[in-house]
Amino acid sequence: MGTLSLIKLGGSLITDKRREKHARDEVVTRLAGEIAELRRGSEGRWIVGHGSGSFGHVEAHRHRIHEGITSPEQLPGLAATADEAARLHRLVIGALREAGEAPYSFAPSSGLISVGGEPAELHFEPLRRALDLGLLPVVYGDVVMDREQGCSICSTETLFVALVAALQERGRGVDRVYWLGETDGIYDPSGSTIPEIREVESGGDVLDQLDGASGVDVTGGIRHRLHACLALAQRGVTSWIGNGLVEGSLERAVGGDPHAGTWIRP
Question: What's the predicted TM-score (pTM) here?
Answer without folding.
Answer: 0.91
